[in-house]
């Protein structure tokens, strides 16, 4: 009887020691499993990249965005594998957005879609790592995380295009003034564009005019280069300016007064836009006032009154 009882105690003690050992070694086992998974993932990724043709890795001509450089070989491989999944409608829409953002020579449509896919996977990985101490996340949270990760690159591209459009609209009157002065000084249109590029501030408008000059040097006519500028930007102000220049050249009219009128019109449009934004400011301030400022004001005003009423026993 004593021997049987002693055997049970020894067995329980061994189980306790083993459980303490495994509980102490559990973090190291988890780290080892994570390192093994990362190594297997990198090994599989290297095999996938080996199948990517070399020309798929060097399609862009300008420097790519910083986030794409950070993705490295994984982004190139993903861009190769998502190519058959992109529809023609999506391709045209993304090409237009990349052109508007000035990234048509920095990123391809395949690379941008690959960035969205990897963004969704990275967001899912971050969610799993953060929720791991509390258990695996639910399918709903995984879906939300992947949707957010895939939406961020699209939001970044749209914001970049809108910011670039605003910068071009802001710089256009200044460049028109430089071009007008050069035309009135006796320079031709190509020379005036070169003066504007040399003397104007750096920015998207300078890059677009430099591209017009590059197209002219490559053999395209000035009219074709200007029409290509209007087609790329698709801004009413730029389209009107290009149309006025081409009409004046076709009719043999003087470009100086026309360009000065265009500069004055663009400047007046900017003032009108600023006035419209100023009129919208009170409406936009209404929600923060109702949700943040007014409640704090009411608390500061009425809190002493409520405290005094409660101390006097009226409640």
Question: What are the defining features of this structure?
Answer:
315 residues; mainly alpha; Receptor-associated Protein; 2 domains; 82% helix; 0% strand; flat; transmembrane; T2SS_GspF_sf; membrane; cell membrane; T2SS_GspF_dom
Could you please describe the fold and organization of this structure?
By secondary structure, the chain is an all-alpha fold. It folds into two domains: 2-165, no CATH class; 166-272, Receptor-associated Protein (Up-down Bundle). The chain contains ten helices and no strands. Helix 3 crosses helix 5 and helix 7 (204-217) packs antiparallel against helix 8 (222-233). The longest helix is centred in the C-terminal third of the chain and has 57 residues, at 255-311. The termini are far apart.
| Gross geometry | flat
Distance from N terminus to C terminus (CA atoms, Å) equals 74 Å
**Element order, helices and strands?**
HHHHHHHHHH
Helices and strands: which structural class? mainly alpha
Taking the sheet with the most strands, its summary is:
none
Strand proportion: under 5%
Q: Give the tally of structural domains.
A: 2
Mean pLDDT: 79
| Unreliable spans | 55-60
How many β-strand stretches? Answer: 0
Instruction: Indicate the multimeric state.
Output: single chain
Supply Rg: 32 Å
State the helix count. Answer: 10
Amount of helix: over 70%
């Amino acid at each position: 009887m004593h021997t049987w009882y002693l055997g049970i105690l020894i067995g329980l003690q061994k189980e306790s020691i083993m459980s303490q050992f495994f509980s102490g070694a559990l973090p190291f086992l988890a780290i080892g499993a994570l390192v093994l998974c990362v190594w297997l993932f990198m090994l599989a990724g290297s095999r996938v990249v080996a199948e990517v043709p070399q020309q798929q890795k060097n399609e862009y001509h300008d420097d790519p965005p910083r986030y794409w450089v950070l993705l490295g070989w994984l982004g190139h491989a993903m861009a190769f594998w998502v190519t058959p999944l992109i529809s023609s409608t999506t391709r045209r829409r993304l090409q237009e957005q990349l052109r508007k953002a000035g990234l048509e020579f920095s990123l391809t449509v395949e690379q941008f879609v690959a960035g969205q896919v990897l963004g969704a996977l990275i967001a899912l990985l971050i969610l799993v790592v953060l929720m791991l101490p509390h258990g695996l996340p639910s399918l709903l949270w995984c879906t939300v995380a992947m949707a957010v990760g895939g939406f961020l690159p699209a939001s970044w591209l749209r914001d970049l295009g809108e910011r670039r459009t605003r910068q071009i609209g802001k710089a256009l009157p200044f460049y028109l003034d430089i071009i007008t002065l050069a035309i009135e000084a006796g320079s031709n249109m190509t020379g005036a564009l070169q003066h504007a590029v040399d003397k104007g501030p750096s920015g998207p408008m300078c890059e677009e005019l430099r591209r017009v000059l590059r197209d002219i040097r490559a053999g395209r006519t000035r009219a074709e280069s200007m029409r290509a500028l209007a087609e790329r930007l698709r801004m009413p102000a730029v389209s009107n300016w290009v149309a006025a220049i081409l009409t004046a050249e076709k009719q043999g009219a003087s470009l100086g007064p026309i360009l000065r009128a265009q500069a004055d019109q663009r400047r007046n449009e900017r003032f009108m836009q600023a006035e419209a934004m100023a009129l919208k400011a009170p409406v936009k301030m209404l929600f923060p006032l109702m949700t943040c400022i007014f409640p704090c004001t009411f608390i500061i005003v009425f809190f002493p009154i409520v405290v005094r009423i409660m101390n006097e026993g009226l409640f």
